[in-house]
Design brief:
Elements: H1 3-23, H2 25-42
Helix pairs in contact: 1-2
Length: 44
C-alpha cells in the first residue's frame, strides 16, 4: 500500500466514522456497547 492510498484510507475513516455515529442509530448503539464492554472489563 502506497503512502497516498494509506492517507486516503485514513481520511475516509476519519470522515465516515463520525457521520455514521451521528446518523445511524443502530451503529452508534453497537459502538457504545462495545466501548462500555471494553471499559468494564479493563476497569480496576
Amino acid at each position: 500500500m502506497t503512502t497516498t492510498n494509506y492517507l486516503y484510507l485514513c481520511l475516509g475513516i476519519t470522515v465516515l466514522l463520525p457521520l455514521a455515529l451521528l446518523f445511524v442509530p443502530g451503529f452508534s448503539d453497537i459502538v457504545e456497547q462495545l466501548v462500555l464492554l471494553f471499559l468494564s472489563t479493563n476497569a480496576r
